[in-house]
Amino acid sequence: MARIFTSCIVVITVLCLAPAALAAGKFDRYYDRGVEAYQQKKYIKAIEWFKKAAAARSRRPEPYEGIGLCHLYLKEYNAAAKAFRKAIEFDPNNPKYYRHLAHAYAKQRKFDKAIETYNKVLSLDPDDIVCRYNLALVLDNARDTTRAEAEYKNVLSRIGKAISLAKKNSDGSELKKLRGIALTVKKSLAILYYNGKKYAEAAAILDKAVKAHPQNPEIYYLLGAVTLSLGKPNEAIKHLNIAIELNYDKPAEVYHKIGNAYVDLKKYDDAIKAYKRAIFESPSYGRAYYNLGELYRFKNELKKALDMYETAAAAASMRDDPSPWRGIGSVRYEQDRLLEAEEAFRKAVSLEQGDRKTLIDLANVLSDLGNFSGALSELKYVKALGGTPELETLIAITGKRLERRKAGPVKKEELEQGRLWSKAWIASGKRFKVRSNTTPELCEEYLEILERVMKLYIKEFDIRVDTDKGITRVYVFSRREDYRRFCSETAPKLSGAAGLFDPKRRIIALYRKRGILPDGTREVLQHEALHLATYLAFHRNLPGWLAEGLAECYERLTVGADGRASRPGVHPAHIKTINKHIVEKKMLTMRQMLDSDRERFFDSRDSIYYAQSWVLVHLLKTEHSSAFDKMLSGIRRGQEPEKAVDRMMKRIFGSDAALENAWKLHFKSLAEKAKKEK
Description:
About 70% of the residues lie in helices and about 5% in strands. By secondary structure, it is mainly α. Among the domains are: about 1-195, Serine Threonine Protein Phosphatase 5, Tetratricopeptide repeat (Alpha Horseshoe); about 410-540, Collagenase ColT, N-terminal domain (Glutaredoxin, 3-Layer(aba) Sandwich); about 570-675, no CATH class. It has a 5-stranded mixed beta sheet with strand order 1-2-3-5-4. Strands 6-7 form a two-stranded antiparallel ribbon.
């Protein structure tokens, strides 16, 4: 949530001028006419009369006060300060001139001078409560939060005593005025706590303020913002709706906060309605357009997202904000409109030059365009801002691609032609033939990955290489839409998955994940290559949990300096998935996993099957490796997989109850280990 800034507009006790007593003389006549023009808000005319009065009697402070106040209303703060200093010169012990001068300094954001001048006022009038509040506001805006907090509390303490005295004297007008000031101070202190992320303290103050002023809509708005930051979106919506009912004068901001609360609740359709209502209340509300763009992009409605981002970028409130341009660049990138993505990211960089994420996004686009030297330049600039291990990898990969292109950059026309599948690049190896419409460098990289991991899998699964002379065709599409179109013709049920392996046609297909270091693409390549390896090793399709569990387990193999492969533990993401399903009581029993239909795994969104498959294989390989390897050997010799699995489970656990208990204990130990490592 955006920071709530304390306003720099400081309360002034009195901004009115009294006419001089009726008397003869030019000074009085000029001064009275100046006051009359000032009261009619004719400030330029008033300045002329006040200057004439000052010329008639140059050592009187009143005309200079009038000149200064007129300049304040005209927002000419430097001229106002100059006039107030002149008034102080002729009446150095009058606190009101210092008060005006401090206000002019605060408006110019000259906080040090404003603080010094307010302290001078308090030295002349220690009981000036409004001045103390103004001092706290200036300290707050100067980010001197410790002193600002102390001063706010000081003001509240003094107001409390003044309210008690007013009650005792039955002074109704004074009591009303003091309560109004107290409410203003409480709101400012709550905002101070909010900006300092002291949400509990802010909520405590606002809860008391609500009880004292139950009809004040701004308190409910602030309380809604604070409770939202405390992670209580339902409570926040309740407070924000009350602010709407009480006719808060900034309804667009309230609906925007309600939209944020619905996002936290993952009620995205309700969030969209709230953001649209914010736009209805304030058609130029740029942040609401931007948040709508984020939601539409999340829902993969890219055209709507682009419209919202572009509207946000054109809004006056976000003209200097790089966020909408980052959104535009991301959408264009996903649409494979790389030149427009580059233009948008460059615009975002021009608005915030040190933003590492945008610079890396720009480097990704340049890499996809085949401009590796440009991508390398951007990455080295990010490194100068502060490098990370991942960044070093990006630089190394980009440098390698640049070296590979010794013949010079691919021409733009050739790159555009290559993106057509009919003109796609081809790389051939010992076991694979890769065809891809990404870039020629990526096509060769995919072949290298496949040949390397297949060599490892052949060793791990003891595959008879001499019996397999076939070449596996690999299709890597640059866009998800092209991959889905391919799936609709070959394997419709797998169109939602990240990749597929078709054993009958000996085909691996996937789409390329974006970026210089597309870990997702590498993982999918390895995963599908593992399905190929298990198919070659067992000469048949395995049960869903076993095929996916083996693939998930082996795809993370690492090879040490001694050439031996080591398997990392269960991925934390899988433990997180299972934890979530345990909480939601959607956890599958071990028996349900063993008996699950292979079709279950065709739905890539059903991540619980993949997560539990890996944990199940991990359990068998780590705690019952002998029985597990014996079961795999039986399948290789021709046993029916389901019978071999059932025989192994009975041999290890004896009964389903023991099997389920072992599963629960194993997962508990993994969860504890993951928590400890974290």
